């Protein structure tokens, strides 16, 4: 961010703190993420159930390829 925005580390840090205080972002180690449901870190159960149909299709394709 420092190089891209051409500002100091302190400026980036202060701005990120302000955005976090306004509940716009959540600071993380080495960065920040938007404070929305889409940007939340999901636990294992939520992650494992996401995109289930796509996972099953990929698995079926992989199994079929192995049998050739």
Task: Describe the fold and architecture.
- The chain is mostly helical and 68 residues long.
- The protein has one domain.
- Helix content is 56%, strand content 12%.
- The protein has a two-stranded antiparallel sheet with strand order 1-2.
- The mean pLDDT is 84.
- InterPro entries: DeoR_HTH (IPR001034), WH_DNA-bd_sf (IPR036390).
- Keywords: Transcription, Transcription regulation.
- This is Transcriptional regulator.
Primary descriptors:
two-stranded antiparallel ribbon; transcription; 68 residues; transcription regulation; 12% strand; mainly alpha
What is the 3D shape? elongated
Class of secondary structure makeup: mainly alpha
Following the backbone from N to C, one meets helices and strands in this order, namely HHEEHH
Q: Report the strand count.
A: 2
Describe the structure concisely.
With 68 residues, this protein is mainly alpha-helical. The protein is 56% helix and 12% strand.
Topology at a glance:
Blueprint: H1 2-5, H2 9-21, E1 25-28, E2 31-34, H3 44-49, H4 52-66
